Amino acid sequence: MEDLARPFDPYQTHQRHFDCVCTRDSVQYLVSGKLEVLSQMQDTVFVSPKVPVRNSEGQLLEANVIGMRAGKENTRDNFPLAIQFLARASQTEEDINICSWYPVYDKGTDIDVTLTAIHEWANGMEATLEGTVLEGTRQMVFFDTRYAAKKLDYRIGETYTFKLAAFAYFVEMLDSPKMKLTAEQTEEFERKAGWKARRDANGNVKPMTIDMRDLVACVSRRGAQPDNCEYQSTIRGIDKERFDIDEFIVLRIACVRDDDGKDIEFPMICRRDFFSRPWPRVGKCVRGILWMQGYCVEGMR
Hints:
The chain is mainly beta. The chain has helices at residues 15-18, 24-32, 34-38, 147-150, 183-193; strands spanning 43-47, 51-54, 60-69, 81-89, 97-105, 109-120, 127-133, 138-144, 159-174, 178-180, 209-211, 217-220, 228-234, 237-243, 246-257, 263-271, 285-296. Strands 1, 2, 3, 4 and 5 form a 5-stranded antiparallel β-sheet that branches. Strand 7 (127-133) and strand 8 (138-144) form a beta hairpin.
């Protein structure tokens, strides 16, 4: 995984993000068929106003950014899991240039986020956003899949509604989401908590067990790609989605919990080959690393 000691990388790519939906062989298939895919562009997701962007030589120019989807039937209503392309259209350039592509999932959860930082990518068309939720008590970091469309509108400190979802890099099923403390750890906890020491019939310390089934965590790994997060949650729901000829598992997990114990949940796309045995089921505990993404729903169709 990425170097967590590095600062944010504005020159990063989406190569690792395709690992969430493709094997290495299928990535090569996608790349080899890219021209054919582009010829089937049917669904325009957004067209931005003129915004400052940079071309591959690093030159600054004003351009409209176009978000597009491929496939004659690949509409957002029927196929929310898809590949989205970003194209740059400028009056100073003869052609419309495809600049980026990445997997997206549009059936996310609407969450109000107050922006605290915008990490714009070097191309000026993409960005990783940081913000807080639940009245500033919890942090969220995610890639904005439609950043160019809202680039001129965003203001730090303002609150916007985003539709958030995630893609799993891997999923670990926890057979026993419990952690057993050593005798020394148990004694230290009892002493600090002011508890009366518990002993067995032979006078030995009875080690404590911590049950982590109710743990909810989704924490940014920071570093060069802060929209990669470590997570742990029980599975709240299970669904399926299709992408091309492949079927994916959609786990509904919790990302944050407020002070009253209410959870904010979101869908996480998982490759089927992440699971063998045990097969995921509601109530089981999972953990791993995910890529968080979303887009602002205000003013978007």
